[in-house]
Amino acid sequence: MEYNFREIEAKWQQYWAKNQTFKAENPALSGVEGVSDKPKFYVLDMFPYPSGAGLHVGHPLGYIASDIYARYKRHKGFNVMHPQGYDSFGLPAEQYAIQTGQHPAITTEANIATYRKQLDEIGFSFDWSREVRTSDPTYYKWTQWIFIQLFNSWYNKTSDKAEDISTLISIFEAEGNANVKAACDDEIEIFTAETWKNYSEEEKQTILLKYRLTFLSETEVNWCPALGTVLANDEIVNGVSERGGHTVVRKKMKQWSMRITAYAQRLLDGLAKIDWPQPLKDSQTYWIGRSEGAMVDFKVDGFENDKISVFTTRPDTIFGVSFMTLAPEHELVSKITTPDQKEAVEAYVKATAKRSELERMADVKTISGVFTGAYALHPFTGEKVQIWIGDYVLAGYGTGAVMAVPCGDERDYAFAKHFGIEIINIFEGVDISEEAFTDKENSVIANSDFLNGLPYKKAMKTIIYEIEKRGFGYGKINYRLRDAVFSRQRYWGEPFPVYYKNGLPQMIDKQYLPIVLPEVEKYLPTEDGKPPLGNATTWAWDTNTNTIVSNDLIDNVTVCPLELNTMPGWAGSSSYFNRYMDPQNSEEFVSKEAVEYWQDVDLYIGGSEHATGHLLYSRFWQKFLFDKGIVPTDEYAKKLINQGMITGTSAFVYRVEGENKFVSKGLIKDYKVQPIHADVSFVNGSDELDVEAFKNWREEYNDAIFIGENGKVLSPTLSKGKGANGENKVLLLEEDLGGDKYIVGREVEKMSKSKYNVVNPDQICEEYGADSLRLFEMFLGPLEQSKPWKTSGISGVYSFLKKLWRLYIVNDEFAVSNEEPSAEELKTLHKTIKKVEEDIANFSFNTSVSTFMIAVNELTALKCNKRAILEPLAIIIEPYAPHIAEELWHKLGHSTSVSNVDFPIFEPKYLVESSKEYPVSFNGKMRFKIELPLDLSVKQIEDIIMAHEKTQEQLQGRTPKKVIIVPGKIINIVG
RNA sequence: GCCUCGAUGGCGGAAUUGGUAGACGCGCUGGAUUCAAAAUCCAGUUCUUUCGGGAGUGUGGGUUCGAUUCCCACUCGAGGUACCA
């Protein structure tokens, strides 16, 4: 009776699907007995984007880990929800559509089918009845609904939460907006209740838009006219688009934005109460970028009505200001520049416009700038301060202007030195002739009027008080975080539930959702530069019938144009974890009962690349939904783990330059060679190349000559035989080569199709089975670290599974005995239980696999065949290798799934030892070992050890200075 | 530049509060079984050695009876971020 993984795995995968073994019940809704008594546990994976390439072995790593955890929790008596779905809107499907005309929905559907097949083959315990797809109208209906909720809300800083826009309107009607503290647009005019009531409906709406949590704003974007779209920073390389190399310009566009900045402080504070990796928290903290300081206005000499506002974190150094720097794009630049400087300034502004923001920021070494000829007036001293422009100041950050204090800031110092600007020292007892003094905590202010002699903290308080008293500024907490642009000029995304009347956005009522993506002829932007939805001919809203109608009917009275942008990639993923709780609900986003029961995610596993994208936006939406009373917690995931990347081990062959000849790795120093990626599937575990497979790979290599490691020309004689893993292959026999082989070079790189180092899970499942794949992925190393993939090692876990199987087999028949287990057997079992439970608690799955191997090795050595040992063993291994466990469990005579059986209880009594093999060290170096009873006193141990002949041998007559004995641990003799 | 993580045999890695460095697996070497192979099993495998031993966890210091583990300085690698005022 062989371990036939193909048969076993197919059988149990079908069984689980048929019996809905992993369906998680919502007790309140289902009334399923027994479920409601169990505590809930919610294990979540970051759902995948279903790309055309399918899964490679890197993808399931986190899924396997979370699956082990979910399965373990079922054994521990929890009602576990472990859902999966697809983040199925996205660019690749759209690009494929542009190239081929194939509708993205069709491509996406096909890709999902591939993913599903691959996921099923690995034996995950997903509850597929809860599947969501972000591109499914029944799902994005709720994305649109949340958008409407955001539109209908404003952020009240007084109550410190989002409130319905109606509460704001009531305040306006009662007392105007003078006392409203809200997260809102920067420049809002103050009005009274009287004025508000006299505003037209349009004027009112325009004002309200400045307060809403999602709002239209003019945003500067990277516009690529050739592609007809906006590009993200990372899609621009050297100032041109990554795709196609087209020109990119900065352009202002009216777009939807999300007022995430309203939540900056709460997003920061919330980090303290969630168990997420510190590096991830650090990067969110940095991204939010809280800084305390002051806004200060500087008057411009000769321009009575203009002022330059700056934000500074060091208002205490204001007496050290010797110049100001404006971003070249600053609106005052053209106005205040003197005729003398005009030419230079204009040239500089022009040069800056050509540089991308990225380029400007990457170039740290060159100091550049131009004097405008104008002067600002120091608010305290009234002295004239030069106004410069410099491209290190960014228009998009803060006010686009900096008050420069060279003695206290390295960059200002370098700038001042470079252009010979005065450097005023305002620090007591500090030499600034060589560099700026930036240690603010240890600074004492001097040369600064009323601030003289004050340390940093006192000086800050005093100066902010003075600034506010004199009325040219105020203390302010600034955040680096920007409001998030929420419009995309794409086709394959969620349509907005928005139409425009007289240029003002109107929300479509909830009952008419979803607004379904229209059909278009082409997926490209229109010729006049409108987004792809501009191609739709039926894309107008009839306000009488509340239906989408033909554009021909637009009259801007009853029929109005619909929004042409779509939502960004992160829209659908920002709250999907809540939707899993109640995925089929068509009346509500999530029912009260469901969300009260499931509450939040107990364990979330995914990649760290989402640190400041998805993981920040989703926290923002959760806080908003919490404010609205829709969800009961304002942080949605208690615990988060980042799985590390699996890198590929690329293989290289070496072509002699100018020839169609390849030399083996050991010979490359004798030739001028060019390394070429070879597909890793042509290489075996000993880095030997299957030369024939490589030759047949591409026509250009058909006639290539290969020189082996020993310098022999590899003969092309073919022979049938077995490959390294037992598969049938046509290969070169060693005799034919005179024992010579072609050895490839290896290098660890990111796993990628273009590097030919991708390994698919399907291949592995086919050759070794899903249980082997699962064990091997865990065995590779710590979950959170990145690690290279090398398929050759998989034979180790495969042998282990065969060895485990054989424990249950006697004379080729399945058989276990009912004999009482021995102390040794019980010890093996219980130390395994203990270690595996500790490992799961620590997410240390790699060490669990080792522990299983040790247990099976020991039980094999003991020839253990006893039910009392082997039955619990099948349970504890189930989370890791569920198929073989289920098979063994049923063979042991059970008729229901092993997945909900109680985990064996660890009994410490089986591990109690009476003696210990003490390591005896001399000066910290272990020299020999001695077996001693554990109940000896320190004195007794010392007497025994000092009398020992090996001790005397080591000491060679010396008298030890000290003998350290830690009972149960070590003996160390010093001297 | 800054932030974060990491560096242990030929390779992946283990060593849970400072206490036997190299568990477990791959690979490799030798052997058993076999007509042969696959599979399986057994033994060995950090380096070095005059076979007594000696050295050894990126480098250099420090704390300690004792350091892969703690502290300081540095080198290299990976990821992120970026003249952030």
Please describe the structure with a list of short key phrases separated by commas or semicolons.
975 residues, alpha+beta, Rossmann fold, Isoleucyl-tRNA Synthetase, domain 2, 6-stranded mixed beta sheet, 30 helices, 20% strand, globular, RNA-binding
How many strands, what sense, and barrel or not for the largest sheet? 7 strands, mixed
What is the CATH domain class of the largest domain? Alpha Beta
Query: Based on CA inertia axes, which overall geometry fits?
Result: globular
Task: Work out the strand percent.
Answer: 15-25%
The poorly predicted ranges are 716-737
Provide a short characterization of the protein structure.
The protein is α+β, with helices and mostly antiparallel strands. It folds into 6 domains: 19-146 and 570-642, 3-Layer(aba) Sandwich (Rossmann fold); 290-479, Isoleucyl-tRNA Synthetase, domain 2; 495-565, no CATH class; 646-749, no CATH class; 762-910, Isoleucyl-tRNA Synthetase, Domain 1 (Orthogonal Bundle); 913-974, Roll (Ubiquitin-like (UB roll)), CATH 3.10.20.
Can you lay out the helices and strands and say which pair or pack?
Elements (H helix, E strand, L loop, with lengths): L4 H15 L7 H4 L9 E6 L14 H16 L3 E3 L9 H10 L3 H18 L15 H15 L1 E4 L4 E4 H11 L6 E2 L9 H6 L2 H9 L4 E11 L4 E3 L4 E2 L2 E2 L7 E10 L5 H7 L7 H11 L1 E11 L2 E10 L10 E4 L6 H4 L2 H16 L2 H6 L7 E8 L6 E6 L11 E4 L5 H10 L36 H15 L2 E7 L4 E2 L12 E4 L2 E4 L32 E3 L4 E3 L9 E3 L14 H4 L12 H7 L4 E4 L7 H14 L12 E3 L3 E11 L4 E3 L9 E6 L12 H7 L7 E3 L11 E4 L5 E4 L2 H4 L7 E6 L10 H8 L1 H10 L7 E2 L5 H14 L1 E2 L2 E2 L8 H19 L3 H17 L5 H11 L4 H10 L23 E8 L2 E9 L4 H10 L1 H7 L6 E5 L3 E5 L1
Parallel strand pairs: 1-2, 1-24, 13-15, 24-25, 26-33, 27-29, 36-39
Antiparallel strand pairs: 3-4, 3-5, 6-7, 6-10, 8-9, 10-18, 11-12, 11-14, 11-17, 13-16, 14-15, 19-20, 21-22, 21-23, 26-27, 26-28, 26-32, 30-31, 34-35, 36-37, 38-39
Helix pairs in contact: 1-28, 4-5, 22-23, 23-24, 23-26, 24-26, 25-26, 25-27, 27-28
The protein binds one RNA strand of 85 nucleotides through α11, β12, α14, β16 and β33.
